[in-house]
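Folded chain entry —
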Amino acid sequence: MPSLGSRHDVVVVGAGPAGLTAATTLRTAGLDVVCVEARDRFGGRLASIDGYDLGATWFWDGEQRVAELVAQLGVPAFEQHRTGDAIMQDRTGIRRITGNPIDAPAYRFESGAHALAAGLAARLPEAALRLSTPVTRIRLVSEMVQIDTPSGTLRAAQVVLAVPPALAVARIDFSGDLGPDLIRLAEATPVWMGAIAKVVAGYRTPFWRTRELAGAAISHTGPLRETHDMSGPHGGRAALFGFAAAGALGHGFAASVTSQLARLFGPEAAEPTTLHVQDWSAEQWTSPAGVGNLTDYRLLGHPRYRQPALAGRLHWASTETAADYAGHIEGALYAGRQAATAVLTAHAGAAEAKIG
């Protein structure tokens, strides 16, 4: 049995951008906060390797929360490369499209999107961020929220649930306290990128640019459905990346990818120096079983997620629950701040009640 642990004002479940935003906001406001994360790393879907993004990649004009955080943390950003022609691939063949109607103006992070998570995590004391700590049960006990993990039990006045709703209800036992309607909504809400594999192919040089290609392509035959240039600033750390349905993975997938890239961009693409395949459907702390069947994207940002559960003590916070920019990094930051605001309001109300 897990041992009874200490009490806190707030426990945040999940150390992705939403959870880290909520935790740092609440700690800055003076609350006693612990953020627990099932993985052995923080960042969630902000995952980078050697500067290549295996999860979230871009942010766009108008996404002020990301822009503010980039400025606060001093994270260098640069514009997505878009110059050149695009490629269209379908069953009739491959054709070049003058200009690049695929890529929209966007920005990237020089050292990868994980730099945002690292900057947020650095704002928390070591004891407040607990990795390799999956939550197995959340329930109300004597007007407190009890959070059970394999390594111990935490109690808090409020809890922020900063993981995809479908994952939460699949992995955590809520002892029937959430109610059937909310459970059904959470079970049906898609996990952003949950059924997607992201592929990054690194090269010595961005050779496609010398052919006046943007590195952008749309394919109706696959295995990559779309590709983009993922090179660093000025073409350094050259790379192309693309998305494939997770169901397309299997024996021979890597060879199929490099063959497709060669057809799209030239023979040099057949021999990447590195090839990273990130299957988000196989990430047990991102996607529940059957994630590919969750396709009703109208449920993202559902108003029910802005209503606290567990007698007002549980607050939703993941990019899937954001009222604006759901699925983006901006949505995760939005959800994290909204949850923190709700917690602070509840905390202030409880303090006033005690005084009264």
Summary: The domain at 4-49+115-191+295-355 is CATH 3.50.50.60 (FAD/NAD(P)-binding domain). Residues 234 and 313 are 49 Å apart (CA to CA). The longest helix spans residues 329-355. The longest strand covers residues 4-13.
